Amino acid sequence: MSMTLREAIETRRSIRKYKQQPIPREDIEEMLRLTGLAPSAWNIQPWRFIVVTNAEKKRELYFAANQHPQVDSALAVVILTSDMEDAILRKGESIHPDLPKEEKQWLKENIPGILGKQTMEQRGRWGVAQTNIALAYLLLAARSMGYDSSPTYGFHPAKVRQLFNLPEYVQIVALIPIGKRAEEGQPHHRHPLERIVRYV
Ligand SMILES: Cc1cc2nc3c(=O)[nH]c(=O)nc-3n(C[C@H](O)[C@H](O)[C@H](O)COP(=O)(O)O)c2cc1C
């Protein structure tokens, strides 16, 4: 199943009850590949994914996530994280090989300098801003492949950190349960354009 971006946007909604059918690994990989095509400043790509399918681990995650029903129901939950320390360490991998030599050199020398001057906390926040773009990509990539999701912020970061051995500097951006819908969810309820747009 594949749909246009417009169809994916129109039909995506937060789903908290899923069919109990496992997601093939290749589908997960394709969703994450598409997600990784999200843009980021300096192409830094700080997003890192943990895919939780193990029933025991997922049960523990459910309790660390305020017992949100979507975490219990989905057979796969993606923990979307941002790791700026790893991103800086691997900056060489994110610099496009086709850029002019001087630009590549500039990026190589300046990315660690500019980001290195910030505190780990500031860098962390900067990484989360980039990773939120990937979050939107993941929701729409899943939908375009016929899957549903429910981004979830309600979790205890310290507990999730401990469960998956995540160091303090890794930011946990969201939990994203994924599967095929076993409920319809709610139709979109959004501000009308005239409430939020100003043409000048
Ligand atoms: C970043 C993010 C975090 C969210 N966290 C939660 C959450 O913790 N629990 C929950 O039930 N829904 C959560 N939601 C779902 C929102 O309530 C939902 O997206 C919003 O009401 C719009 O509904 P729709 O997604 O069906 O269009 C979250 C959504 C986003 C984008």
UniProtKB/TrEMBL annotation:
GO MF terms, alphabetically ordered: oxidoreductase activity
SUPFAM superfamilies to which the protein is assigned, alphabetical: FMN-dependent nitroreductase-like (SSF55469)
Gene3D superfamilies membership: NADH Oxidase
Keywords recorded for this protein, A-Z: Oxidoreductase
Domain of life, source organism: Bacteria
Domain Nitroreductase, residue spans: 9-180
Similarity section: Belongs to the nitroreductase family.
Protein name: Nitroreductase
